[in-house]
Amino acid sequence: MTPTTPRTPTPPVSDLARQRAATRRDVGVALACGVFVGLMVGAAYAAVPLYDWFCRVTGFGGTTQVATAAPQAILDRRITVRFDANIARGLPWRFEPEQTKVEVKLGEVVTIYYAVTNLAARETTGTASYNVAPTTTGAYFSKIECFCFTEQVFKPGERREMAVVFFVDPKLAADPDQDDLNTITLSYTFYPTRAPATARASGS
Question: What residue ranges are annotated as transmembrane (predicted)?
Answer without folding.
Answer: 27-48
